[in-house]
Design goal:
single chain, mainly alpha, 3 helices, 64% helix, rod-shaped
């Protein structure tokens, strides 16, 4: 960032946009997972279901449910 100019450089722009895109994708995945676990379509997830889903997911995906 060029201090005081109100402008950012291309590489900084790329970092900001990538972060925003990743955040949006993460939120979409979380919403999809919640929808799957919300079997009764009540806008809530039973904690027992959440524990079951957490123990049965591949290890690489556990951080999403922790």
């Amino acid at each position: 960032m060029r201090a005081g100019t109100g402008y950012i450089l291309f590489d900084e722009f790329c970092c900001v946009v990538r972060k925003k895109m990743q955040d949006d994708e993460d939120e979409k995945e979380l919403r999809d997972m919640f929808r799957i676990l919300d079997k009764e379509k009540k806008g809530e997830v039973n904690t027992n279901e959440l524990r079951f889903a957490n123990c049965c997911r591949p290890k690489a995906e556990l951080h999403v449910l922790d």
